[in-house]
Amino acid sequence: MANKVKSVWFCTSCGNESSKWMGKCPACGEWNTMVEETVATGKRQNQSANVPGKSQKPMPLSEIDSSKESRISLNNNEFDRILGGGIVEGSLVLIGGEPGIGKSTLSLQIPLMCPELKTLYVTGEESARQVKLRAARIGGTDSNCLIYSETLMENILAEARGIMPDLMIVDSVQTMFSQNVESSPGSISQIKETAAQLLRFAKETGVPVILIGHITKEGSIAGPKILEHIVDVVLQFEGDNRGTYRLLRSIKNRFGSTSELAVFEMTGKGLREVSNPSEMLIPMHDENLSGVAVSAMLDGTRPFLIEVQSLVSSAAYGTPQRSATGFDVRRLNMLLAVLEKRAGFKLGVKDVFLNMAGGLKVNDPACDLAIICAVLSSNFDFAIPSDVCFAGEVGLSGEIRPVSQTDRRVTEARRLGFKRIFISSFGNTDNIPEGIEVIRVADVPALCRILFKGN
Ligand code: TYD
Ligand code: MG
């Protein structure tokens, strides 16, 4: 049958397909997300979805053999941990992140650190020579890594089936294209098709595949949510790409926990694992600086301490500015309103700037206490002693509420040599360790009385 080309509309948010343009996507309800793409009819579309794989009979659950360990360690503690203890055979792992954050560096570092694994590294973005230059920069042996600069999926999968590597890496999904789909590389139908073909390859052969994906302006993995449904694991790189710390967060994991966070540091020789994330806290200033408070926060399952910095100054214009880096500015406004209403601090005529050190994005409510302390410290130009840290949520009526896993936060603070920690006076405090002075406070006025005593 002759190929006919027709236009279809895809939602860039959820991947929903429609024959005509619509202002609002009927599947996900987003406005203005439909884009036009041409697809060929006649030739069977999305062959990967229709061709049956290796035929298997239905089996009782009790007879399925799961005793064999099917995880492969990648000799990188942080990366192994975030995957749930190594990469699972036949899994498709998506690593997303903004340009320049270190996706290609990490994905090349993995095979270089695992010379015992035969790896196929497919690059659609860089030439083989450029990859070689990067490998030389990172250092390490590349004895068992095959570099393949190609973008046509059919060729890639044919090679991969011939080589049968232990691990395959594809950089990036946006540059790959399949002949099954007429539209250009990077379009939604190409991304869907590429991911579906790789998934089928991974499941049939048991080869784990790491797929790199770019992030859109809105912060989602480009080539919509649909990709997140297809793959087994979604890891997302975060961090300020001017700073040196990079955070790899697990967003979805069919074989492990999603509350994991891996920390890396970008050095001149690639990414270094940061096994003790509190090292981000290493002070970069003299003691007795006002506007700085340390929060014992928890990201996923790991406690670490970060520095909260604030600057409060008289507003230059009629409307005071509020700006927050790494923190929700609406929550900052809420905390400022609590300080004003419940504790009588007049911050309505002040500009307030807030920054989380290390380029971290924080959404742990336990940081509230450190934030209000940093703001007050800057406002009154009073330094908080450097051996004090905080862990507590601030409620709308100015009460300090208990936070999850207080004992682990206190343990981490003690390990790092802090002498005092402020926590809520409510909640269960049975397992709080000894060796650090724990100060329990009920509300913001009580906190201020203790903190600013004698000033
Ligand atoms: P890269 O992995 O190319 O980013 P992505 O694939 O996510 O777009 O990272 C590139 C950045 O990392 C670039 O700004 C240079 C820097 N870099 C180092 O600082 N040290 C290194 O050893 C390498 C390889 C890169
Ligand atoms: Mg890259």
Descriptive report:
The structure is a single chain. A 9-stranded mixed beta sheet has the order 8-7-9-10-6-11-12-13-14, with helices on both faces. With 455 residues, the chain is α/β, with parallel strands linked by helices. The model is unreliable at 45-51 (pLDDT under 50). The chain is built from 11 helices and 23 strands. α6 (188-205) packs parallel to α7 (224-230). Bound molecules: thymidine-5'-diphosphate and magnesium ion. Thymidine-5'-diphosphate is lined by residues 97, 99-105, 134, 137-138, 266, 268-270.
Tell me, what's the shape? Answer: globular
Oligomeric state = single chain
How helical, in percent, are the residues?
A: 10-25%
Are there runs of 5+ residues with pLDDT below 50, and where? 45-51
Q: Count the beta strands.
A: 23
The bound ligands are: thymidine-5'-diphosphate, magnesium ion
Q: Beta-strand percentage?
A: 25-35%
Biggest β-sheet description:
9 strands, mixed
The structure class reads alpha/beta
Distance separating the two termini: 86 Å
